[in-house]
Amino acid sequence: xxxxxxxxxxxxxxxxxxxxxxxxxxxxxxxxxxxxxxxxxxxxxxxxxxxxxxxxxxxxxxxxxxxxxxxxxxxxxxxxxxxxxxxxxxxxxxxxxxxxxxxxxxxxxxxxxxxxxxxxxxxxxxxxxxxxxxxxxxxxxxxxxxxxxxxxxxxxxxxxxxxxxxxxxxxxxxxxxxxxxxxxxxxxxxxxxxxxxxxxxxxxxxxxxxxxxxxxxxxxxxxxxxxxxxxxxxxxxxxxxx
Length: 242
Fold this sequence. Notes:
The chain has a single domain, classed as 4-Layer Sandwich (Purple Acid Phosphatase, chain A, domain 2). The protein contains eight helices and twelve strands. It has helices at about 15-25, 45-55, 60-65, 80-90, 95-100, 130-135, 220-230, 230-240, and strands at about 1-5, 30-35, 55-60, 105-110, 110-115, 145, 155-160, 165, 170-175, 180-185, 195-205, 210-215.
């Protein structure tokens, strides 16, 4: 089984379309989504419709939650507030209904999906350190928990003796007796210095997980953001991967 795990699309249709082509070329069996389909970018409805039509499991992200008016956006920075307000104003009925139906977490077999962290999904706290990861391993069952939220791809493994370590590289062997907490990065707004869209590929037949990077037409998304009047800082950061 080959499963693509995508996160943090953030209304970036060009990035999503490039990822879709890569997923098709890879012969993926299932697509799962780890939250934040809207926010920041210019195409909330098209991106939400894609998630509706193509994913097997999907969960709520904090920007999705905010677009529904379910949280106080004062905690967002001014650019993010302006973008999520604009996104919310564009949303179609079908897309609003779908976002409202998303759970905070979903599980299927050995896979758990949650946007921020499995310990407190609605707290929207980030997993930034090995200590953060260690505190979250007891809060999911199965071998894999996939998260997003920080937009930075990273994998942490828990061995059979309770040791927690980073698992470096773009291709990670899945070892028997290990459990994994993996941030699959961001499709629509990478923040690791690489502007290419990022997603995860779990291949259980080969016993490996891979981070896949896909270049896309950043300039097209940027022009659409400018036309929509979205903050210039959000436009510029796309080309810098930050």
